[in-house]
Design brief:
The complex is a heterodimer of chains A (493) and B (491). Chain A is built from 20 helices and 2 strands. Chain A has 493 residues and is mainly α. Helix content of chain B is 74%, strand content 3%. Classes of the chains: A mainly alpha (493), B mainly alpha (491).
Chain lengths: 493, 491
């Protein structure tokens, strides 16, 4: 465990090199459309994805860089999905940013740095590494949100995101220092051992857990640490909203799992309670507030809050009555949830970008009016996304909700079954605003009659995206098995 | 591919094809493709009837494939005497819907036809699913096409109706989802409905399961007091939507009682039977009275559907063979009769664009052929002997008299209310002097309308005179079900 062993971090090294190469190459690109930069970025992302996948297929757990990083199937699977999410994001984003004069080299190198941060986070084995990855990702995202410099709303969003994000990082760091104080180590497996031994001062540990959970809650955007989410989602250019609403959710899930489960399983009783409260409040606030929104991006932001709350339910139901028998089941249901959620989110924001055009942001729900007539095909795909978010079969979102509910019910505790019923009632409220989008698209007459002609690659990726959400709804078994395998292997070590 | 799979996926695949390729400038081709697909989907269900073995209560035409390995979910299909007839009925009604929309729907024809074909396949899936999760997926998925059908082609208040329809049904079925997961957990990781039938369960669990299933199925049936979505949905839906809603979708709920509530929670079902019987009788009597005062024809037939479905649930929960078989026969005949009633209203609506009873009067003078058909269907709706409506109601009344004379007596009043609201509506619409110029200019049925009316008329009379093919199929399965329900799962 203590040798350097660079092998596990090849994807990260590749990303780092390519991020720098892209930044340099872009200096020499004269082309307004940044074609070489774009393709170089996409090829690098594809290479990183392929690398992650090949590591995942090897299925081993390795430690690298003196035990600072762990490379297990969980990390590589999430890294793979994050790279794919980034590829899709950039495909959707290119025409959008181009028509808004934001197609600069920075976009691409910052995207790569964001993914580097995510990659580091998903395979971190040390609290400091988690923090480094988190900051790398967050700083890149702060800059990306402010990409539209001359736009007051964007700048405000960036400021808000930065201040609150820095505060959250501070929380997390403070919690980590508490843990270090109590256990004498920053290494996650070591912390796990020390906590299991029962020696450290419980008060300090719980204090640390509170701060760590708060920091994570900020990053996941769950109530009551959700204030930044609607403003940033709405204020950021849609391409960037997609960037920060997609892949980073996978990273936030990963560090939650690494910190709480891998490191502090011994304190599960404490943090599960916190997660349950966060989760129920998020579903309540997210679903109710989303109903009142007229801005599509803001509505989706509140929907994200509610969805993340639902996802947390899985994480909060791993340890029941002191046994961890159902842990793998519970955590893999959350992982499946977050993966399908990201897949759906990519599609919804991608759709907003398709509907937007030069000088017009299709941000309001009313901009979708009559989409079924303007483009039955796009309306159909968007309908799949909406029903998936609402959790109606046969879409991927249904199985996500099913697996989390299943994790709650199979605990066998009537308390958790009660929570499951509550979650179901709250997601019924949620169904209302997703249905409203379908209503606007199908039942209302179009107000905006500009022809919709998305570029060929955007159209193809959108079709694949829709097919994936529907496909994982018809045959979810494969993805579920992958998530379960990754979680089981991560828990085994 | 098995027959049942074919009956499910053939309409769905052709519906998707129409959605993907159809355009409004090829409306004619779209209609023909839809008709051929609907006919083909119906034809593949016929071997189910001819090849069905009446002597066994076991599931027939079974197909079982692994589906979601992680949750041990199977793509498991099969029909028994309880579900068999609903498969061809669904496919049959879809043909009628396609024909009924022929000249009426002129916009987004491919989407309309596609939605109905997909809906048809999904409903067949509900009736033939033997895996709990598969059932749920089909059950829920039917909401999507129906939501779009009501919302796009419906009347002025369609958005409200579509939302109400969707959210009411979703609310009920989400509780059922928890129940299904709970059963999965209790049975040690199985989603097989037939395994759940054998699963011993303590009384508190049975009670909760019973009410969770009740939430889903009562909304779908719909039973009083959760019926309020139905009149709205019916009034606003286009004719085809109303037909499918009344003829098939309501049956999904009633079928659920037989497939889930009763065999899975038999003790709770017997314990709470009084409750179901009570609200069924309220539906029969109170909703019958409500129907009497309606001014809108569609609303009247919608309320009459609720009252008729009250008969069905009443028959199920008196736990004797006459009652359960009678309920099933009533479900099938109501499928034909209510479908025919909504089509008749559709015929008038297409011409006059009003559903108000007061907007008509003396239609018999201008549309004699139509009036004759409508007379038959109205009579069937009030349960006249020798029509389909009679057999089921008669069996249920006999069954309830066996169970308890007073319940039978109250149930029998339905025949009086049924006759009152049906015949009174008929009188006001068809008889008397010609009400206004619209009625004076009415054209009688064209060949297309005549065809679909005639087909339904044959079905209604056939069910009234010779119901034996229906009851023979059900007999063994209903018997087995009742024997199963009689044995306690406690201990």
């Amino acid at each position: 465990m203590n040798n350097m062993n660079w092998l596990p971090v090849y994807p990260e090294i590749l990303l780092l090199i390519m991020a720098c190469v892209v930044a340099l190459v872009d200096l020499f690109v004269k082309d307004e459309r940044r074609t070489p930069t774009y393709w170089l970025t996409q090829v690098s992302l594809a290479a990183v994805a392929a690398l992650h996948l090949s590591y995942f297929n090897r299925g081993e757990t390795m430690y690298g860089v003196q035990g600072m990083v762990v490379t297990d199937p969980l990390g590589h699977l999430l890294g793979f999905f994050a790279a794919i999410a980034m590829i899709i994001t950039l495909v959707y984003a290119r025409p959008y940013v181009q028509s808004r004069d934001m197609l600069k080299g920075e976009l691409f190198s910052l995207s790569l740095f964001t993914l580097l941060g995510i990659s580091v986070m998903v395979s971190a084995n040390n609290m400091l590494v988690i923090y480094l990855g988190l900051e790398l990702m967050s700083l890149s995202l702060y800059a990306l949100v402010a990409l539209r410099r001359d736009h007051a709303v964007s700048t405000e969003a960036a400021m808000k995101y930065f201040v609150l994000g820095a505060l959250a990082s501070g929380f997390l760091l403070y919690g980590m220092s508490m843990m270090y104080g109590a256990t004498g180590s920053l290494s996650i497996p070591k912390i796990f051992e020390v906590i299991s031994s029962g020696q450290p001062n419980k008060a300090v540990l719980v204090f640390g857990v509170v701060f760590i959970v708060s920091g994570l809650a900020f990053k996941l955007g769950v109530v009551p640490f959700h204030m930044w989410v609607p403003d940033v989602y709405q204020g950021a250019p849609t391409a960037v909203t997609l960037l920060l609403g997609g892949a980073p959710k996978l990273a936030a899930f990963a560090i939650t799992l690494r910190l709480l489960v891998d490191g502090m399983m011994g304190l599960a009783v404490d943090w599960q309670q916190m997660l349950l409260v966060l989760s129920v409040m998020s579903m309540l606030v997210g679903n109710l507030a989303a109903i009142a929104q007229t801005n599509l991006k803001r509505m989706l932001a509140y929907s994200t809050i509610a969805q993340m709350g639902f996802m947390l339910l899985g994480l909060a139901s791993g340890v029941v009555n002191g046994t961890t028998l159902s842990a793998a089941n519970a955590y893999s249901s959350s992982m499946f949830y977050v993966v399908t959620y990201v897949l759906t989110t990519l599609g919804t924001f991608g759709m907003i970008m398709i509907l937007s055009r030069q000088g017009h942001e299709a941000e309001n729900i009313s901009d979708l009016a009559g989409l079924a007539r303007r483009s039955p095909w796009l309306a159909g795909v968007m309908t799949i996304f909406m029903f998936s978010l609402a959790g109606v079969p046969p879409t991927a979102g249904f199985y996500a909700k099913l697996s989390v509910l299943q994790a709650l019910v199979t605990t066998g505790s009537s308390f958790y079954i009660g929570i499951a019923v509550l979650a179901v009632v709250l997601s019924l409220i949620g169904a209302f605003y997703y249905l409203r989008i379908v209503k606007v698209m199908f039942f209302e007459e179009a107000t905006d009659l500009a022809p919709l002609k998305p570029a060929g690659d955007v159209r193809a990726v959108m079709a694949l995206n829709g097919a994936a959400v529907l496909g994982f709804g018809l045959l979810p078994g494969g993805l579920m098995a992958l998530c379960a395998e990754a979680i089981v292997k991560a828990l085994a070590t | 591919m098995g027959l049942l799979s074919l009956a499910i996926w053939l309409p769905i695949a052709s519906g998707l094809l129409l959605l993907a390729l159809g355009r409004d400038d090829q409306a004619k081709a779209v209609r023909w493709v839809a008709l051929i697909a609907a006919l083909a989907s119906f034809l593949v269900t016929l071997p189910l009837i001819t090849g069905f073995d009446n002597a066994t209560a076991a599931m027939q035409f079974s197909e079982k494939l692994a589906w979601i390995a992680r949750f041990n979910v199977h793509y498991h299909l099969g029909v028994d005497g309880i579900s068999l007839w609903f498969v061809p009925l669904t496919a049959f009604i879809t043909i009628i819907v396609v024909i009924a929309a022929w000249e009426v729907i002129t916009e987004r024809v491919n989407q309309y036809m596609g939605a109905f074909l997909i809906l048809s396949g999904l409903m067949v899936g509900v009736f033939s699913a033997l895996d709990g999760l598969l059932f749920y997926v089909f059950f829920e998925a039917t909401l999507i096409p129906m939501y779009i059908i009501i919302g796009v082609w419906g009347g002025p208040n369609r958005v409200y109706a579509a939302f109400k329809f969707f959210l009411y049904t979703l609310a009920g079925s989400l509780l059922m989802l928890i129940a299904l997961i709970y059963l999965y957990f209790q049975s040690g990781g199985s989603f097989e409905i037939l395994d759940w039938h054998k699963l011993p369960l303590p009384m508190p669990a049975q009670t909760l399961l019973f009410f969770a299933f009740f939430a889903a199925f009562a909304v779908k049936v719909p039973m009083w007091p959760v019926h309020t979505w139905l009149p709205d949905a019916h009034v606003e839906a286009p004719t085809g939507g109303s037909v499918v809603l009344a003829a098939i979708m309501l049956k999904l709920g009633a079928y659920g009682f037989l497939r889930f509530s009763m065999p899975i929670a038999p003790d709770a079902s017997r314990e709470h039977a009084w409750f179901i019987i009570a609200i069924s009788l309220i539906a029969v009597v109170y909703i019958g009275l409500v129907a009497l005062v309606q001014k809108d024809m569609k609303k009247l037939v919608a309320y009459s559907s609720i009252a008729h479905m009250g008969f069905v649930t009443l028959g199920f929960f008196i736990f004797n063979e006459l009652g359960v078989s009678g309920g099933l026969v009533q479900m099938i005949s109501h499928g034909f009769v209510s479908g025919a009633m909504f089509l008749s209203i559709g015929v008038l609506y297409d011409r006059v664009h009003s559903r108000e009873i007061a907007a008509y009067g003396g239609v018999v003078n201008t549309m004699p052929k139509f009036a004759a058909f409508a007379m038959l269907f109205t009579m069937a709706n009030c349960g006249l002997p020798a029509t389909g409506g009679f057999v089921g109601e008669w069996m249920v009344i006999l069954g309830s008299v066996q169970f308890n004379f007073w319940i039978g007596a109250v149930a029998a009043t339905a025949l009086i209310f049924g006759a009152a609201y049906s015949l009174w509506m008929y009188k006001r619409v068809f008889f008397g002097a010609i009400g206004n110029d619209h009625v004076r200019e009415l054209q009688d049925l064209n060949a297309r309308e005549f065809l679909m009316m005639a087909v339904l008329a044959v079905a209604v009379i056939w069910m009234g005179i010779y119901p034996k093919p229906f009851t023979d199929v059900m007999h063994t399965s209903v018997d087995a079900l009742l024997k199963h329900v009689a044995v306690s799962k406690l201990n």
